[in-house]
Amino acid sequence: MATVLQLKDFTKSYDGQKPAVDHVSLEVEEGEIFGFIGHNGAGKSTTIKSIVGILSSHNGEIYIDGKTLWEAKKECQKKMAYIPDNPDLYEYMTGISYINFIADIYEVPTEVRTERIEKIADAFEIKEALGDLISSYSHGMKQKVALISAFVHQPRLLVLDEPFVGLDPKASAVLKQEMRALCAQGSAIFFSTHVLEVAEKLCDKVAMIDHGHIVVSGSVEELTREASLEEVFLEQLELAKAQVESHA
Ligand SMILES: Nc1ncnc2c1ncn2[C@@H]1O[C@H](COP(=O)(O)OP(=O)(O)OP(=O)(O)O)[C@@H](O)[C@H]1O
């Protein structure tokens, strides 16, 4: 299986001194859903923003399909879709015009996009509201429109920051279904979350980041052979804390 996303010793510091993310290495392969887990301030958004090219300077390497953002930024970004935790959409557009705008950028043929939009919008129960201005939408509706605009071009790599926050249970279920369907076609998904139950049920692989360091990573199947993901992570956090204290 081909590796879609690879981080090799990825290190990012905002002040040029203390790293917010420190020597993180991980791989996401075709067909995989990868959960990036961590508390507030652990380094999830910093990693995600670097992967999608919003934060540009870092040490180590980020590869998308074997190419770094340095060597092929446009090519890499064309393969990705990124939905931030608080999507900031063009408020003066209607939902459908925004989705079509993204579909135009990614050159999705009209018949293909019409079918995809219909299907996902129907599942998200937002079809009737797509003609309204985005400025009139609730937070959850904006999130749904952002998600539809990402799924409409079937990205090779979908990157999501806390995608389940703010979605109701029905919409969360639809999102999980769409994520699985996208990966079944050979794409890969990298998403951050602090909800361990979601990660345990949805992900093929996970990594937990704490104070910028990966404290545990691997396949969910292997990690949860003897304990729940929550128990595994709590134990690793305690170990990491004890290590820090012993060095203090
Ligand atoms: N723009 C910035 N300038 C300086 N420091 C920052 C900046 N953004 C984040 N940090 C710091 O980097 C560290 C990692 O933050 P990051 O936002 O990546 O964490 P996170 O895991 O995404 O947290 P959350 O779940 O709260 O979004 C934190 O110590 C944070 O204070």
Automatic annotation (TrEMBL):
SMART domains: AAA. GO terms for molecular function: ATP binding. CDD domains: ABC_DR_subfamily_A. This is ABC transporter ATP-binding protein. Keywords: ATP-binding, Nucleotide-binding, Transport. Pfam families: ABC_tran. Residues 5-236 form the ABC transporter domain.
